DNA sequence: CCAAAAGTGTTTGCTCTACACCCATGG
DNA sequence: CCATGGGTGTAGAGCAAACACTTTTGG
C-alpha cells in the first residue's frame, strides 16, 4: 500500500440495498425500475454510488432515505460483490446492505431522474433482476431467515406496538412454517425482550394486549454448538 | 447508476486478510511490518489493492499467496470497512477476508518491496496495528470463534490427518475453554463429518487412530431458535 | 347467544452434561 | 513394570415439543 499504488485505475463503488417489509401478510422487497441502460426497463435493487465524504453505512442510509423517505431503519451490511464483469459499463464493486422497514410505515417515494418506478414485490415472486441483483436478493433472504432464528431481528419489521399474535404471524411468514401458539408465547415472554403496555387492541373477537419491544433487551441467543 | 455518475471521484479499493493458524499450541495471526508511510514501522494486516481484472476473492487469494506462498487455503469474506478517514492518504475502502491455514503448513514468504518483515503473533498478544486493523482483527477472531460453534471450520486449521485429541485441542485453543473428552468424541463421531483412516500415530503412550475430514460432509448445524 | 380471536399448563421424550476407569505402547 | 496418552458408557437434569379448552368481546 505504498503511495505510488494510488496511480492504479480504480473501480467504482456502489451500495445496493435489499429493503424488506411486511405487506399484505407477505414478506416483500422494494425494487426500482431502471430508466437508463444498461438493463433499462429491468427491475433492480435500489442503490447508488458512494460519495467520497460519507461512510458505506451513511451511503446506504442516504440511498434508503432517497428511495423510501425513511430515515430510521434497521440496516446491516450483507456482503460485497466484486466480480469484474458484474456491470457491463466497467468495474463496479457493490457493498450490499439489507434493511428492515416496520410494517405499515408510510413511505414517501421521491424517485430521482434515475428511477422511473418503485414497487414492492413478494420475496417469492421477484421479477428477473438486473446485474447480479437476483443473487444478492437471494442471499439477503437467506440471511434474514437465519438471523431470525438466533436473534430478535423480527421486531424491526413490526410497528412499535403489537400483539402476540401479530409477532407470531411475522415469524410464521418469514420462516414459512406454522408455530405453536402456547410454546411461542411462553418462550418470547421468558426471553424478556418484550414488555406489555397498558393498551389493548380491539377487533373481531376478544381484545388483545399490546406489547412493545424492550430496546435494552439482549436479543441474541447463543447458537447450539456442533461440539460440546 | 447512469453513465454520467462515472465521472465522480473514486475511492481506492483494497483487500486485507486476517490469516489464522495454529502454532505452538496457540492461535496466531500473520502480520507484516510496514516499510513506508503512513504508519511506517507499524504492524499491519497483509493486503493490497484490488486489480481491475480480478474478483475480490481472487485479490485476497493472490495477496495471501504473495505473503505466505500458499495457494490453497480457506478464505472467507469478513466485512467491508469504508470510513472516510480510515486511511490518511485518502479514501480507501477495504474488503476484509479471513484465512485459515493448516497447522504445520510450510510457508514460504516472498516479501515484496512493500514489506520489511512478516511474523506470526498470538491472537491474545497482538501489537498495536496500523489503520483500523485492530478492529478488523478483533472482528475476525469473534467471527472465527462463532463460526466454530456452528460449523466444522476448525478442520481447516488441521493437517489432512489428525487424531481426535488433536482436533479437540484445536477447539479448546480457539474457544479458550476445556471440553469433556468423551462428550466431544461422541458428538464429533455422531456428526459424521470425519472418518477413520487405516493409520495410527505412535508417540508417547498408546498410539492414536488417525482420522480425516470428510469433504462431502454437511458441516453446519442449525442454530437453536430463539422462538419455537 | 353465537362467532371470533385471546389466553393459558402439563406431560413426555430427548438432549446435554457430568463423571472414572481400563488399554496399548515405548522405554 | 511403569509412565503416558488413548479410548470407552451411563445416569440424572433440564429443555423442547405436543397437545385442547376457557375467556372476552362485538354483533
Structure overview:
- Two copies of one chain form a homodimer.
- By secondary structure, chain A is of the alpha+beta class.
- Chain A has two domains: 12-147, Nucleoside Triphosphate Pyrophosphohydrolase, CATH 3.90.79.10; 153-226, Arc Repressor Mutant, subunit A, CATH 1.10.10.10.
- Helix content of chain A is 23%, strand content 30%.
- Chain A contains four helices and ten strands.
- Chain A has helices at residues 56-68, 133-150, 164-175, 181-190; strands at residues 12-23, 26-34, 43-44, 47-49, 74-81, 92-101, 115-122, 161-163, 194-201, 208-213.
- In chain A, strands 1, 2, 3, 4, 5, 6 and 7 form a seven-stranded mixed beta sheet that branches. Chain A has a three-stranded antiparallel beta sheet with strand order 8-10-9.
- Chain A is elongated, with a radius of gyration of 20 Å.
- Chain A starts with 11 loop residues before the first strand and ends in a 15-residue tail after the last strand.
- The interface between A and B is large, with 64 and 65 residues.
- Chain A binds a DNA duplex (27 and 27 nucleotides) through residues 163-165, 180-183, 185-187, 202-209, 228.
Amino acid at each position: 500500500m505504498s503511495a505510488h499504488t494510488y496511480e492504479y485505475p480504480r473501480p467504482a463503488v456502489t451500495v445496493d440495498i435489499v429493503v424488506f417489509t411486511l405487506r399484505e401478510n407477505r414478506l416483500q422487497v422494494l425494487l426500482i425500475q431502471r430508466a437508463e441502460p444498461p438493463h433499462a426497463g429491468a427491475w433492480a435493487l435500489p442503490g447508488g454510488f458512494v460519495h467520497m465524504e460519507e461512510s458505506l453505512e451513511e451511503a446506504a442510509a442516504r440511498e434508503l432515505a432517497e428511495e423510501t423517505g425513511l430515515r430510521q431503519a434497521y440496516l446491516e451490511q450483507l456482503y460485497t460483490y466484486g466480480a469484474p464483469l458484474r456491470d457491463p459499463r466497467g468495474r463496479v464493486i457493490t457493498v450490499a446492505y439489507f434493511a428492515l422497514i416496520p410494517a405499515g410505515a408510510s413511505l414517501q417515494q421521491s424517485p430521482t431522474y434515475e428511477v422511473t418506478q418503485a414497487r414492492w414485490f413478494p420475496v417469492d415472486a421477484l421479477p428477473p433482476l438486473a446485474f447480479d441483483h437476483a443473487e444478492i436478493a437471494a442471499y439477503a433472504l437467506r440471511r434474514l431467515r437465519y438471523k431470525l432464528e438466533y436473534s430478535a431481528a423480527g421486531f424491526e419489521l413490526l410497528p412499535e406496538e403489537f400483539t402476540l399474535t401479530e409477532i407470531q404471524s411475522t415469524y410464521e411468514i418469514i420462516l414459512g412454517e406454522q408455530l405453536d401458539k402456547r410454546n411461542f408465547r411462553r418462550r418470547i415472554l421468558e426471553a424478556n425482550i418484550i414488555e406489555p403496555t397498558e393498551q389493548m387492541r380491539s377487533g373481531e373477537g376478544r381484545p388483545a394486549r399490546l406489547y412493545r419491544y424492550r430496546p435494552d433487551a439482549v436479543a441474541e441467543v447463543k447458537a447450539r454448538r456442533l461440539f460440546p
